[in-house]
Amino acid sequence: MSETQTRAGFVAVIGAPNAGKSTLVNALVGQKVAIVSAKAQTTRARLMGIAIEGAAQILLVDTPGIFQPRRRLDRAMVQAAWNGAEDADLILLVVDAATGINGEVERAISGLEKRQHPLVIALNKVDLVKKEKLLGLSLDLTERLKPEQVFMISAANGDGVPDLKAALAEAMPEGPWLYPEDEVSDATDRMVAGELTREQIYQQLHQELPYASAVETETWEDRADGSTEIRQQILVERDSQKAIVIGKGGSRLKQIGQAAREAISEHLGRKVHLYLHVKVNPKWGDDRHLYQDIGLEWAD
Ligand SMILES: Nc1nc2c(ncn2[C@@H]2O[C@H](COP(=O)(O)OP(=O)(O)OP(=O)(O)O)[C@@H](O)[C@H]2O)c(=O)[nH]1
Ligand SMILES: [Mg+2]
């Protein structure tokens, strides 16, 4: 009897903020596991998405972008990104081909120059870029980082993603699967619910507000009628920010709540009652307890 040898391993998805790492993880998994926004620094903590390709289970570690950290939260985010790479079997560097090599990409490159892991590069957002520019970028990165392979993809429309997925599967070490086959991420429902509300804050609010805010899930109650009641707290740093999140007559908070409720309900596959309230805490960025909730390690 011939049996296909199973494979399983970890791929750390690394890159500058906004490169499209989370979009790519979702595309590889084949469903949404990570939140995405047009703003940089959307992902705050490490999250694992689980993709399956033939006999291979690919554990994709989505990480925050690599950038110049300033606040404590920033340091924890960048640390989480590099920690995500430590135990990986392979590093997947995602580069926004439209932006090319900027200071943030340079930071990631210098971090990767010390690495021991095999590296694959995905030049993303090729839907936005001319071919000639892609070739130059590919040559440049190949020379500097000596990757196993470079792929040109669009995580948004799926171009090139199947080939990349096949290559990742091939690179996984032989061994038994590490997670049940129907599992798509390592996040708890409680974490996902908080993230889906935060995604709405990133999508609906502008300037510094998303960065000055965090979402905490306070209570969670599965009701006998099959619905779930969730209470979340949106933390902001100042009164003026609280006013913006609430909006005129509560209109903004209502819109955030509505969209988040729909997304959470779709994720859970049940009816959801979502109650949001906004709290001012100028020091939430220094609250150790909150870091745990977000899934970050405290950074001194
Ligand atoms: N045109 C185009 N846009 C893309 C593509 N991939 C991602 N995007 C967009 O790029 C933006 C950032 O995507 P994310 O997936 O949140 O990027 P990220 O690297 O996870 O960002 P951080 O979590 O902030 O580090 C979003 O607006 C995406 O819709 C692509 O292939 N083409
Ligand atoms: Mg992200």
Biggest sheet features: 6 strands, mixed
For this structure, the quaternary state is single chain
Mean residue pLDDT? 96
Q: Span between N and C termini?
A: 56 Å
Number of continuous helical runs: 9
Q: What letter string, H or E per element, gives the SSE order?
A: EHEEHEHEHEHHEEHHEH
Question: Hetero groups bound?
Answer: guanosine-5'-triphosphate, magnesium ion
Overview of this structure, please?
There is one protein chain. By secondary structure, the protein is an alpha/beta fold. Helix content is 37%, strand content 22%. The protein has 9 helices and 9 strands. The chain has helices at 21-29, 72-86, 103-113, 131-145, 161-171, 189-204, 239-246, 251-268, 288-294, and strands at residues 7-15, 47-53, 56-62, 90-96, 119-124, 149-152, 214-222, 228-236, 272-280. The strands form 2 sheets. It has a 6-stranded mixed beta sheet with strand order 2-3-1-4-5-6, sandwiched between helices. α6 (189-204) packs antiparallel against α8 (251-268). It starts with 6 loop residues before the first strand and ends in a 6-residue tail after the last helix. The mean pLDDT is 96. The site of guanosine-5'-triphosphate has 24 residues, from α1.
Topology:
Layout: E1 7-15, H1 21-29, E2 47-53, E3 56-62, H2 72-86, E4 90-96, H3 103-113, E5 119-124, H4 131-145, E6 149-152, H5 161-171, H6 189-204, E7 214-222, E8 228-236, H7 239-246, H8 251-268, E9 272-280, H9 288-294
Parallel strand pairs: 1-3, 1-4, 4-5, 5-6, 8-9
Antiparallel strand pairs: 2-3, 7-8
Helix pairs in contact: 6-8
The structure holds guanosine-5'-triphosphate (GTP) and magnesium ion.
